[in-house]
Amino acid sequence: QSVLTQPPSASGTPGQRATISCSGSNSNIGRDSVSWYQHLPGTAPKLLIYNNNQRPSGVPDRFSGSKSGTSASLAISGLQSEDEADYYCAAWDGRLDGVLFGGGTKLTVL
Amino acid sequence: QVQLHESGPGAVKPSETLSLTCSVSGASISSYFWSWIRQSPGKGLEWIGYIYYSGSTNYNPSLKSRVTISIDTSKQKFSLNLTSVTAADTAIYYCASSVERGMATVLDYWGQGALVTVSS
User: Fold this and answer.
1) A-B interface: how many C-beta pairs under 8 angstroms?
2) In chain A, is it the N or the C terminus that has fewer CB atoms within a 10 Å radius of its CB?
């Protein structure tokens, strides 16, 4: 059971904004930065956000991240059909002494 | 352009050892973190562990007793060994790197993944 809790699913229509949450604790999100990954089935996961809100080059500015206390969020504005994928948050956990992934959220673009 | 590619047997028998290798091109393996992650059927991503270029390792406690990650800088490769496998170890195994930002949680580049099935 992952200790980074994400909703199993999220949805939105094209053009809308979708938000995915990631809830942790003081041993992970509360003490360290959060990364977000996009995963389309059959492909390699892709880094979307690092250090809570930084985008690697090539990631559209429709994707944004934020963190407050022991929770983080990924927002996707102007939803497009190609955004339909699984999204994972990740953070270092001091108790695990390792990398934790959230359980993943399946985003459906209706 | 950094590229990673997993290779190894696609099938392993129960109780045997799963061995995978990740070949790296486009970046020196003599820097940063090199990680293994897996995804079991119908489940999410699970961190297996990483090796730092110096050779120090860190493993998921749930797998620690069965996992070894090693690195061969001369061949630009790093490897995963998972012993005493069961059906629960059936998964797509990914190798990944932290070349750009040097943080274990920031996996900049990933391999395409290697499906390993544990079955007799």
Assistant:
1) 69
2) N
